[in-house]
Design goal:
Blueprint: E1 9-13, E2 16-18, E3 24-28, E4 35-43, E5 49-57, E6 64-65, H1 83-86, E7 89-90, E8 109-117, E9 131-138, E10 145-149, E11 156-160, E12 167-173, H2 183-189, E13 194-198, E14 204-205, E15 208-209, H3 214-225, E16 230-240, H4 242-253, E17 261-265, H5 277-286, E18 292-293, E19 299-300, E20 325-330, H6 338-352, E21 358-363, E22 380-384, E23 391-395, H7 400-423
Parallel strand pairs: 2-9, 12-13, 12-16, 16-17, 17-20, 20-21
Antiparallel strand pairs: 1-3, 3-6, 4-5, 4-8, 5-7, 8-9, 10-11, 11-13, 14-15, 18-19, 22-23
């Protein structure tokens, strides 16, 4: 057995990398046939602990290689090279309704990986591991500049890759949870793009929260487009949830926002013709009676924009889109009618003759919160309502294994899509 005359060595390679990169976890020096548990633990900036663990049996050489060997139990099973990350959950006894989100991209996620004797399912804190190592996972690469943007009345954060440029850019729009969410933009900047992430929900004016108009997004896009390190005709807009409504509406109706391509994650085109964000909120309020709850009283919002209207005046005229569009859809999205919207958009674009511009990535058993790869799956979490400030538990959907596979696949295809449409035929832009 492990520990009986054996001196195991645990290594993680690399010990420092970006969050969308894989690492190799290797245990050597065990006795052949040893039962061991590999355990991963991290603490969020809110002070909450998350962990994951896998049960392994060492091979004839006394080794366990996570990328090749099968976990026979734990928080994940099978050959899962990154299972120690994506299967993480809040440790027993944690606060309810937690969601794993990085707030400060200037510091890494520190993952403490340990190997224990035997197949353990609890009590890791009380036991002494055979060996431990700390791995750093970063959203931001060395040399990336982070700049707060307040000009023209906007509130955002700009990330600049190192070097003179000019570079292609991404205008990054998050969803209805509000706030200034930076981690996806920081990661995209680490892959060679100037990125501007924008706060647009929950902004305060004259002491009251207000819905921004289209001019707010146009001003922000202009700031990005006019930056000296940006190729002005090589800008993508990337939206999530509510951000998809803005992305599609602005692309079709704004004379200012004319992107080279769009990436739309878990969203819809249901919005009055030439409308704005306030119109989307109004449509949702009108259908509040369609709100549902599951057996655990978690709120389901996906029906608030259903059925998809037949009236063309209530939908963005996606047949007018002139740039490539990628839709990323979770088929178990319980928050937004992404599947129905994607199918309707496809029909509208086929009718208009521009469906050749459309790519749909549709993932079974995948929920609303499609994050960068190896992020823990969040099926439900606390959500603070924008106006009342009351807290509910929102059901996002998805099953852990297929959802996390979808996150990895969609991220790689997103990077390939951006590279194809932002770097091709552009001698001035630099990768």
């Amino acid at each position: 057995m492990a520990g009986d005359g054996c001196c195991p060595l645990l290594s993680v390679t690399p010990t420092r990398c970006l969050v969308d990169e894989k690492f190799e976890v290797l245990v050597q020096g065990l006795c052949p046939g040893s039962q061991v548990t590999l355990h991963a633990l991290t603490q969020t900036e809110d002070g909450d602990y998350w962990d994951a663990f896998g049960h392994y049996v060492s091979d004839a050489t006394g080794s366990v290689k996570v990328s090749e060997h099968c976990s026979v139990g734990g928080s994940y099973e099978g050959i899962e090279p990154m299972g120690l990350l994506w299967s993480m959950k809040p440790v027993p006894g944690s606060r309810t309704g937690l969601r794993f989100r990085k707030k400060d991209v200037s510091i890494p996620i520190e993952v403490h990986i340990s190997v224990y004797k035997g197949h353990m399912t609890e009590g890791f804190k009380e036991q002494t591991p055979l060996a431990s190592v700390v791995a750093e996972r970063w959203y931001i690469a060395p040399g990336i500049q982070r700049i707060s943007i307040t000009e023209k009345g906007i509130k955002g954060t700009l990330f600049l890759p190192p070097g003179p440029g000019p570079f292609p850019a991404v205008f990054d729009l998050w969803g209805g949870a509000g706030g200034l969410v930076e981690y996806r933009s920081a990661l995209l900047a680490s892959r060679g793009y100037v990125c501007l992430t924008l706060k647009y929900v929950g902004l305060v004016k004259d002491g009251k929260e207000h819905n921004v108009g289209n001019d707010y997004f146009e001003a922000a896009y202009t700031v990005l487009q006019e930056h000296p390190k940006v190729c002005p005709d090589k800008i993508a807009v990337m939206g999530l949830s509510f951000g998809v409504s803005v992305t599609l509406g602005m692309t079709v109706y704004s004379p200012v926002i004319q992107p080279a391509c769009l990436v739309c994650v878990s969203g819809s085109h249901v919005m009055p013709v030439n409308g704005c964000l306030a119109d989307v909120f109004a449509a949702i309020k009108k259908n509040v009676r369609n709100t549902r709850y599951d057996e655990e009283q978690r709120i389901i919002w996906r029906d608030l924009l259903l059925p998809i209207p037949d009236d063309p005046s209530k939908k963005v005229e996606v047949g007018r889109i002139k740039c490539p569009v990628m839709l990323i859809v979770g088929e178990d999205d319980q928050n937004w009618p992404a599947t129905e919207s994607a199918e309707d958009m496809k029909q509208m674009m086929e009718k208009a003759g521009n469906s050749h511009l459309l790519t749909i990535l549709s993932y079974p058993k995948t929920g609303h919160l499609i994050e960068p790869p190896y992020s823990p799956h969040c099926r439900a979490s606390n959500f603070v309502m924008a106006e009342s400030k009351s807290k509910v538990v929102a059901l996002w959907g998805g099953e852990t294994v297929p959802h996390c596979l979808a996150q990895e696949d969609s991220w790689q295809k997103t990077l390939a899509f951006l590279k194809k449409h932002l770097y091709s035929d552009t001698s001035m832009c630099k990768l």
